[in-house]
Amino acid sequence: MNLAEAIGLELNPNDKIAEFNVGDTVKAHLRIVETDPERNRTTERVQAFEGVCIRRRNAGPSSNFTLRRVSHGVGVERTFPIYSPRLEKVEVIRRGKVRRAKLYYLRQRSGKSARIKEPPRIKKT
Q1: N or C: which end of the chain has fewer CB within 10 A?
Q2: How far apart are CA 93 and CA 106, in angstroms?
Q3: pLDDT, tens digit, for every residue of 72-113?
Q4: What is d(CA 100, CA 119) in angstroms, rounded to the nearest whole number?
Q5: Helical H runs in the chain?
């Protein structure tokens, strides 16, 4: 019996999260809460973060994935919890063909050497 079963926690998979793997280019939409101290109010907006999935950790309630992108010449990585209520949706932009479970080697690469191949397309007859 694991911890989730012990406390009676039900893991409901979010139907707005698409199936994706490491190496895929993914766009994650996250709900952001902004506060305005001058007007004493808060607003919510949805912010998208698009990048290559370099890591996926499937560990029950603490499952998460890490996206990496290069913005203005600086590498930016962001980790998202899969079961977070702030995660609006995850959509797959591009599939990637990789042979590793963790793509940490992309941190040392730039330009063409940091590209990930696409899997071959299957022709339907």
Answers
A1: C
A2: 19
A3: 999 999 999 999 999 999 999 999 999 999 999 999 999 899
A4: 14
A5: 3-7
Cα end-to-end span (Å), the chain = 48
φ, ψ (nearest 5 deg) of residue 59: -140, 50
- Residue-wise pLDDT tens digits, 31-69: 999 998 888 899 999 999 999 999 999 988 899 999 999
Taking the model in full, what pTM does it have? Answer: 0.83
Distance, CA of 54 to CA of 24 (rounded, Å): 8
Number of separate helices (H) and strands (E) present in the chain? 1, 5
Cα(89)–Cα(16) distance, integer angstroms: 5
